[in-house]
Amino acid sequence: MADELKQEPEQVVAPKRPRRPRTPKKAELAEMSGEAAALTVSEESKPAKKRTRRASAPTETSDAPKPRTRRKKSDKPADIAQNVPAPAVETAEKPESSPEIASVVEPVQPLSEGVSRDSSSDATTPADDISPTPPQSVPQIEAAVEVKALPPAAETTEVDKSRLEVVPITARSASAPRLRPAELPSSSANAPQALYNGRPRENRKPDGARTAAPGRRDLPKQREAPLTMAQLDAMTLLELYKLARQLNIDNFRQYKKGELIWEILRARTHKDGFVFVQGLLDIVGDYGFLRPTDFQRSREDVYVSASQIRRFDLRAGDQVSGQARPPKDGERYFALLRVEAVNALSPEKSAERPDFDGLTPIFPDSRFRLETSREDLACRLVDIIAPIGRGQRGLVVAPPKAGKTVLLKKLANAISQNSPETHLMVLLIDERPEEVTDMERSVKGEVASSTFDEPPEDHIRVAEMVLERAKRLVEMGRDVVILLDSITRLARAYNLTVPASGRTLSGGMDPAALHKPKRFFGAARKVEHGGSLTILATALVDTGSRMDDVIYEEFKGTGNMELHLDRKLAERRTFPAVDIKRSGTRREDLLMTPEELDIIWQVRKAIHNLGNQEATELLLQNLKRTRSNAEFFKLFMASQGSQG
Fold it and tell me: Could you tell me the CATH superfamily of domain 229-355?
């Protein structure tokens, strides 16, 4: 038996594959090797009803492409010579009409050896005429066939009818023949696996099978793009209602638009698996922390990286809201991942604000109306004697047990009631804890405190946080009021913590310790074309401490409004215990109308000859007889007219 045929895979043209007919059992190839020519049957001898495109033998005048003989691996003759080239065109297997026929081999029209095509031109060389060859044995047929070079497998091909060679085309139609590489004999155990379109035949997919496109479930789930506060603010109320319904927010129709935006941000954050945090930024070196509660350090603080501070131009005292993740292994604090809002504005809009130190201070030209009711004599008296303007820097000078805490509480309630748009902050330094609780329950505003049992460092940190918070609000055009009790104790705390300068004032006061308290008190101002910062601070006198007197003397000339309390009036249970003659406001003409200013000057002239206690008691009696200050002014002018 000759060596097995080794053929390189090459692409040839074959007609469209029809349905394969049933074939009977085949005889051994060894028995038919000598009788192949006798068993060859032409197409004309077959019945017409069993003719198919696979069984039809192309002729010279036929329009169909010339196929070559197609065999299975088991149909290969054993005595075929090795290295015999394969035919250029493949022919489908012939259906057998009788069990006696073991195999059908249809001769293929071979190309003459003299006919060849140059790859660079269409000219052909002389060759013998192409004519059908008589039936031959299988080895003779395969020896007479000339192998033609086929185009690359990536291109589709069609058969040139005139010369029976493969010509590449750009696209293949549905009726164009398919290319199949020649099959290699598989009788040897080491023979390579048959290929089909560049893939092993056993691994190829059946005809007509398609690769299913990946469905939505197969695609990776993408997280929804987070909504920023600016995008939510641009939505209508109906769009916010729809979004709140999707997030399962209860009673969302009861919220105002601003409140609903915060609820949506919280719900979206919890849905993504993070924590929504909000607090005041305290910058420590390059990084910072969000203090969620009471301006004090706690375990709930959130770490803010230095890159976020630089990127969003964050400043100390900013109220930052955003998403935070829980601490990882080795971490102590939550970490801020995304900044949603800064001072209730988008981070981009908040970065456009001016700097507080660059704002222009002017005299206060608008006042806070403190009169609320007929019985509130303290606010009515202050409104007449020492009016408070927006941006006022006022000093409440009070001896012990003169009623300063009660007076501050009434002033705070009057401001929050008559000017609800004003941001009110109460700062209690070195006070008793019960007074802190009472102030928190009675004042509608922020209350920051550091009681007397805490170290001086805490007093300073809380005071500076409140001041920075107020500055950030003024930069945004807000009116802010700070009620400080007391600036004397704040100066004492700085005196204990500041490094010694080597100089000492009377009472043991270091001059360097007065710089930051003055900076705090001097921040009060009315800003041109902007907001205002009003600070009313209490200064303790007559305490028996020389240091307290020095502190008062240092701050006495820095304020533009003073309100003195008299301890003797407090001992006589006269409240408010205000010393009318020593109390007053600078440039009060900018805060009052000319008519009001004229009446107040006449009131001061009338009580000038009286003592401090008699003048205060007389004025309070006249205020009790009237229901408002306007009625008091009319009654006073009527009495002055009758006397004149």
Answer: Nucleic acid-binding proteins (2.40.50.140)
